Amino acid sequence: MPEARHRVIAAGIRRRIAAGEWRPGEALPSRVELAAELGVHPQTVRLAYVLLRRAGVLGGEERKAVYVAHPPAVRTLTDADAPWPFACETTDAGSCAATEELAARLAIPQGTRLRHETVECLDPGGRSAMLVSSWWRGRRGPHASFAAELGCVELTEGQAHALGLLVDAPAFRVVRTRFDHDGRPLETADLLLPMDRWLVRLAP
User: Fold this and answer.
1) Phi-psi category of 164—alpha, beta or left, where left has phi over 0 and alpha has psi -120 to 50?
2) Which of 9, 94, 131, 194 lies 20 to 30 A from 80 at CA?
3) Structural domain boundaries in the chain
4) One pLDDT digit (tens) per residue for the chain, 204 residues
């Protein structure tokens, strides 16, 4: 059975990138332009671009210009409570009512007013490496210990946009909860780490 046309085109684009025809950060031709060059329908090129975005070869948002993605810096997460060593940007802050899940994580009644903050952690090149959304009650203070649970999620539209990925792209989700000296939850957070940029190493 012959391989799908868009996959053949995607493989050709990979070869051209490897040969140096397009370099990291450089825009590729539009779907219409490349379709005319290859003698195919623009929709076929769109499917090839989507495939290459999912693979991390191309960057850019759907229905906009695409470019050759810079190889992501693959980092290893060993301590989910360690401070981020590079630049961070607060992208959202405010208050919200505790959902059922947040109430369980913080051992509080559902509907309790919480403070909320989302921070985008940037790598040394200025690209997004991780999103951290935190919720806490009252004043933020020092903690004595923490617990972390690792899982996987599909990114929402807003999360994917911030990380430069496609909607529904998979990511590691680290649920981190901080406790006071008596073991009471003080703060909980979701750490979203794109799977193509992170390894997770469990401490012995």
Assistant:
1) left
2) 94
3) 5-68, 75-200
4) 456 899 899 999 999 999 999 998 899 999 999 999 999 999 999 999 988 887 778 887 666 788 898 776 778 999 999 999 989 999 999 999 999 999 999 999 999 999 999 999 988 767 788 999 999 999 998 999 999 999 999 988 888 878 877 777 789 999 999 999 999 999 999 999 988 889 898 776
Residue 154 burial (CB count, 10 A) = 13
Q: Tell me the residue type at 155.
A: L
pTM of structure: 0.70
φ, ψ dihedrals at 2, nearest 5°: -65, 150
The domain at 5-68 falls in which architecture? Orthogonal Bundle (1.10)
